[in-house]
Amino acid sequence: MAVSGFDIDVPRWDQSTFMGRLKHFANITDWRTALLPDSRLDEAKALVESCRAGSVPPGTTEEQLHYAKKLYDSAFHPDTGDRMNLIGRMSFQVPGGMAITGGMLQFYRTVPAVVFWQWVNQSFNALVNYTNRNAASPITPNQIGVAYLTATSTALATAVGLNFYTKRAPPLVARWVPFAAVASANCVNIPMMRQQELLNGIAVTDENGNKLGHSKKAAVKGITQVVISRITMAAPGMSTFQSLVFMVPAACSLFPQQCSMAVSKLEPELRESILCHYGDSVQYVYFNKGL
Predict the structure, then answer these.
(1) pLDDT tens digit string along 55-75?
(2) DSSP alpha helix (H) spans, 132-215
(3) This prediction's pTM
(4) Edge-to-edge strands of the sheet including 258-262?
């Protein structure tokens, strides 16, 4: 059915519920979208932008618009609109994560193997974290390097250390060493990669998208939720590969991507600024927590 006046940015599913977010992220993390050429993704972006401009091509159906938005959300950054690198996209988490998880689970008995696969995994994670950051808070090459080295060192120290302690442990226990390393590294990698948000705050808006200022407390909330989601995403994958297909969208769905926070919980100076300019009309601020 052809459509007119279609608002392509209205969520297809209710983002205030877990099931609604699960359907949304299952849609945009579909690993099959990672196989599409850039030309097809650019076509989808052009259709999305045309729809936003109110000029839907004649004969375009609602289903075509939904599919174009799916491709757009899977491949283009929500803050900048730029096409994200393939490896860093959430749609690449299933094939990429599956291969790396397989390597970590298969080769965990010797120190050189542990070092190699943890290095591969942290390199992958660093790229994913950088790709899915809040792009409104730029990070320098030096900060990226420090974050990468710190997270990799943390993962290696945890994995190698636990490897020695579990030499005589049952194989099932030893196989969870890679997860412990991944979990500890995520607690370091993500905050370090997004340190500018913690240092300078993250942009917050009202419900209509009007910028109100920057909040460090909002950054802490958003990054904490991302760390929890990433650890949740990794846990089942360490036991069964198939679970990654479900856990990537499920972990992303734990918290809304567009977070909200009560004005009363913001930093005093930002809270006073909002009250001064808007009075009691603004009760909550909103921000992109990243993935």
Answers:
(1) 888 888 989 999 999 999 999
(2) 141-165, 171-174, 177-193, 195-200
(3) 0.67
(4) 211-215, 202-205, 284-288, 258-262
